[in-house]
Design a protein that fits this description.
239 residues; four-stranded parallel β-sheet; 12 helices
């Protein structure tokens, strides 16, 4: 099986370890991973802010970059949702075809590769935050939890108010910074109340927001992408 990695802007610029972990995980499961170097921003920030005309060239570029791949995999629910939900209405038939071949990482693992136990080992107490795009737009459901529950050594604790937004929301965090920060603080309080030492999610944009608050409040918890947990093994633990 061959797939193209759509790493996304946030991961490429701020969290390259998530892209590395995704490749390591997929290759361990027998997936041949390509990285089309022509990929760039999918256009989500522009589209969500109302700049549709400025979004269109990015849609065309992304569509061309991933042309010919049967599977396109991304460790980002928000970018996967952008391609799946909005590309068909912006970019026509070619963009719609890309949308049908694009998968968020956890749904690719469960639905395409057909695994929930990926052979991971992560001896930590973890709580899981389901980001809005993955939860509401992609309908990821229990896929991330099933993957976490199969990780050896991991204790998964329920996050109170898990389905509540963390407050990031892309440009929402800039336009409504006070509200965004308050929502993030609510999420952090809920996460810390679990006693977990790791809060994980499938979207680094949300984890960046939550992680920033955790750091500023000196909370005894770190934010970590799900891919990095799943990439960890007893032989090659992820730090």
């Amino acid at each position: 099986m061959r797939a193209a990695l759509f790493v996304t802007c946030v991961n490429d610029a701020v969290y390259p370890s998530t892209g590395i972990a995704t490749v390591r995980l997929l290759e361990r499961l027998g997936v041949e991973v390509d990285f089309p170097e022509a990929q760039s921003c999918c256009g989500q920030p522009q589209f969500n802010t109302g700049y549709r005309r400025e979004t269109e060239p990015l849609v065309r570029r992304t569509t061309q970059a991933f042309e010919g791949y049967e599977y396109v995999v991304t460790p980002s629910g928000s970018c996967a949702a952008m391609v799946r939900r909005h590309y068909p209405e912006i970019g026509g038939a070619d963009a719609a075809a890309l949308a049908s071949r694009t998968y968020e990482l956890t749904e690719f693992l469960v639905d395409v590769v057909g695994v929930t136990d990926v052979g991971a080992y992560f001896p930590h107490v973890v709580t899981y935050h389901p980001s809005c795009h993955g939860l509401r737009m992609l309908g990821l459901g229990e896929r991330p939890r099933k993957l976490l529950e199969a990780v050896k050594g991991l204790e998964l604790r329920e996050l109170p108010g898990a389905e509540e937004c963390c407050g990031f929301g892309g440009t929402f965090a800039v336009k409504n910074s006070d509200v965004s920060a308050a929502m993030g603080q609510d999420k952090v309080r809920s996460a810390v109340s679990t006693g977990a030492d790791v809060l994980c999610g499938a979207d680094n944009s949300c984890l960046m927001h939550i992680g920033g608050i955790l750091s500023r409040e000196d909370a005894p918890m770190r934010a970590l992408h799900l891919a990095e947990i799943l990439a960890s093994t007893e032989e090659e633990p992820w730090s």
